[in-house]
């Protein structure tokens, strides 16, 4: 009898966990699908911006800094328009980083300072402050 009860409790526990994971996935999609209210209604933020961001990060990993900066730069404004300021700050960080790696220290410093001023609470702002302190 105890074994049947234990097994039933185990099955109920598994079903509850499965239900929570399904609800969790649905909630994740709900809260991680950014939307922006516009005059024409609600539109989903373009996944193309995220794909472009990922491609630009790959370019940085390949040490192709000039190309990467060219990919990141327009994303700053696009992410800002979509209300994704942390992502815009990340894109600006990478533009500054690419400038730094191309020995454009003055431009890198200007961008790092702008990032810290414009997005003070963004995680990228802390990174920019650190990089700025190491520039001559």
What do these coordinates show?
The chain is mainly α and 136 residues long. The chain has 2 domains: 2-32; 46-134, Serine Threonine Protein Phosphatase 5, Tetratricopeptide repeat, CATH 1.25.40. Helices cover 77% and strands 6% of the residues. It has 6 helices and 2 strands, in the order H-E-E-H-H-H-H-H. Strand 1 (35-38) and strand 2 (41-44) form a beta hairpin. The chain is globular. The chain starts with a helix and ends with a helix.
Key traits:
136 residues; mainly alpha; Serine Threonine Protein Phosphatase 5, Tetratricopeptide repeat; 2 domains; two-stranded antiparallel ribbon; 2 strands; 77% helix
Number of helices: 6
Fourth-tier CATH superfamily name of the largest domain: Tetratricopeptide repeat domain
Mean pLDDT: 78
Largest sheet: 2 strands, antiparallel
Which oligomeric form is depicted? single chain
Short structural summary:
This protein is about 75% helix and about 5% strand. With about 140 residues, the chain is mainly alpha-helical. Residues about 10-45 have low confidence and may be disordered.
């Amino acid at each position: 009898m105890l074994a049947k009860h234990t097994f039933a409790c185990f099955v109920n526990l598994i079903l509850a966990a499965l239900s929570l994971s399904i609800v969790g996935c649905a909630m994740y999609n709900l809260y991680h699908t950014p939307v922006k209210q516009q005059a024409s209604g609600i539109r989903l933020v373009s996944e193309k911006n995220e794909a472009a961001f990922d491609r630009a990060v790959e370019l940085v990993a390949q040490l192709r800094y000039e190309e990467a900066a060219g990919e990141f730069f327009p994303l700053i404004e696009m992410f800002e328009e979509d209300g994704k300021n942390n992502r815009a700050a990340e894109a600006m960080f990478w533009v500054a980083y690419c400038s730094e790696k191309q020995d454009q220290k003055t431009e890198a410093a200007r961008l790092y300072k702008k990032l810290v001023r414009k997005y003070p609470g963004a995680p990228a702002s802390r990174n920019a402050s650190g990089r700025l302190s190491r520039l001559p």
